[in-house]
Amino acid sequence: MADAVDTKQKCWQYIRALNSVSDERLDSVALCDGTREYTYRLMFRKWEYYAEVFSALCISGKNGSRAALTGTPAAETITAFYALNMTGTSVSMAHISDMRDPERWARMVKEEGITDLVLADSMISRSEERFSRNAETD
User: Fold this and answer.
1) What is the rounded distance in angstroms from the CA atom of residue 43 to the CA atom of residue 132?
2) Rounded to an integer, what distance in angstroms lies between the CA atom of residue 74 and that of residue 9?
3) In the beta sheet, which residues pair with residue 38?
4) Tens of pLDDT, residues 93-110
5) For residue 27, which phi and psi values (nearest 5 degrees)?
6) Which of 27, 41, 76, 108 could bridge 120 with an S-S bond, Cβ 3.0-4.6 Å?
């Protein structure tokens, strides 16, 4: 008989459990967005950092948040998605074209119950570079 599946497990928990079995695995490349590589260890730290920020902004499942997330296919967007998942926030992926048409955007907000908008940017800020350097040395 196959192992029982935990249907209540969040996607971030599964990924963390699967890839935290050893230091070797934690230090292997988890994500490459074309210009940067992230180890599982760094990726998990970034998820936690982003989740802390979202929670401080009251974007969480406890508050009934439903976020629309838009961004490029880059590490920042992936990090924001899993960090929102860590907070218990329900996430809808939105394309920038959804927001260009005010009527379409208003309908989407109403129909999906959007409470927050998260824009993920692929540009690296100085604070992002500092965070990455500091997290790798911790």
Assistant:
1) 10
2) 25
3) 31
4) 988 888 888 999 999 999
5) -95, 5
6) 76
